[in-house]
Amino acid sequence: MPNEIHVLFPGYSVPDPEDKTAMRANCSCTLIKASNNTNIIVDTMTPWDKRKIVEALATRDVKPDDINIVVNTHGHSDHTGNNNLFVNAEWLIVGECISQRDKYLTYNFQVPYKINDEVEVLSTPGHTISCVSVIASNCNLGNRVGICGDLFEKEEDIADCSIWRSAGSEDPEKQAKNRYKISTLVDYIIPGHGMGFKVTDEMRSKLKEDSIYK
Length: 214
Description:
It comes from Hermetia illucens. Homodimer. By secondary structure, the protein is of the alpha+beta class. It has a single domain (4-211), classed as 4-Layer Sandwich (Metallo-beta-lactamase, Chain A). Helix content is 22%, strand content 30%. It has helices at 50-58, 77-80, 156-159, 162-166, 172-185, 201-211; strands spanning 4-9, 12-15, 23-26, 29-33, 39-42, 69-72, 91-94, 97-100, 103-104, 113-116, 119-123, 132-137, 144-149, 188-191, 197-198. The strands form 3 sheets. It has a 7-stranded mixed beta sheet with strand order 1-4-5-6-7-8-9, with helices on one face. A 6-stranded mixed beta sheet has the order 10-11-12-13-14-15, with helices on one face. A two-stranded antiparallel sheet has the order 2-3. α5 packs antiparallel against α6 (201-211). The protein is globular.
């Protein structure tokens, strides 16, 4: 039985039409119903989205108390805003930090953190130094799916790398290399601020070219 991946809300990022100094943005929020009955939520939107998340989970027959693992691909406010909905979760993973209440694991993310045999968390620094991505195998959306946070802003940022660079990057060189790395590991990507998309060989070639950072 495949792992079920459900994008509860696709992310977005657009200029604020009323304020030229601001953006309007929110992250993609994704539920993984793993084949071993583990429920994982990746990125929890802003604190103003609590009701939306609860209602969206209910359409998948999941309550907040049913979530076993929370993963925030990084610590920005639009990715962490509703972590406190999931106080029954076994682990809270925020970037490269793993905790539960006041207990913190010492873990070296140079080795992927395995949630189970088919779902793991990888270090993918760039947008922030401690960014992570979730890779799930044997899924309804593809053989291997990457839930990548802001490593990828949206599909369009492959053709136009100014999109992800202008969105802020603590280490653009590492981000470019990890974008290519992830493209070689998965066949479908859920980005931080756009719709999910299939990875093509043409995309991989472009990402490889961009990974030789200029």
